[in-house]
């Protein structure tokens, strides 16, 4: 892990500065999310998916392939560094997200990862919560996972696609339906790089 942390920034700079294609083979979804622009998923030597990273990661039919690592990558810009609360505001097409203070300057474009397990859904906007990230979303699809009782919900946040992994009971209790407007409560956002 220590060596990976040393080499990943180098690979990012190489990708960004040279603009030459790089083939990177990995079993680690976090590395792929950090480095890839295009993703080819293979299983037993066969290609099961191939496409732009962000589009491929949010495909409901591939969520079971990622299992507990199911999530999305979004592009954001540092909109504010709040020194008082040691937070940074990330602006993206769906609104804004608060994260632990970044060392990046305001205006810096970043890639962020949001895990499906870190997204919960609300039928009404809440203000009395410790979770700072609340985004208005529309439900695109509702899919059962291979884990009994779990549902994967695909969400549209003004063009940015998010995933939520919730229980079947919660889905039923909230009476979730496709095209329904709900609120996504996002507990954790990881800045990649």
3D architecture notes:
With 193 residues, the chain is α+β, with helices and mostly antiparallel strands. It has five helices and twelve strands. The protein has helices spanning 2-18, 29-35, 53-57, 63-66, 168-173, and strands spanning 38-43, 46-52, 71-82, 87-92, 95-100, 109-115, 119-122, 133-144, 150-157, 160-167, 181-186, 190-192. It is globular and about 50 Å long.
Order of helices and strands: HHEEHHEEEEEEEEHEE
User: What is the typical, i.e. mean, pLDDT?
Assistant: 90
Shape: globular
Number of helices: 5
The SS-based structural class is alpha+beta
Considering DSSP H and I runs of 4 or more, what fraction of the residues is helical? 10-25%
Write the layout of secondary structure elements.
Blueprint: H1 2-18, H2 29-35, E1 38-43, E2 46-52, H3 53-57, H4 63-66, E3 71-82, E4 87-92, E5 95-100, E6 109-115, E7 119-122, E8 133-144, E9 150-157, E10 160-167, H5 168-173, E11 181-186, E12 190-192
Antiparallel strand pairs: 1-2, 3-4, 3-6, 4-5, 6-12, 7-11, 8-9, 8-11, 9-10
In short:
The chain has 193 residues and is an alpha+beta fold.
Can you give keywords for this protein?
5 helices; five-stranded antiparallel sheet; alpha+beta; 193 residues
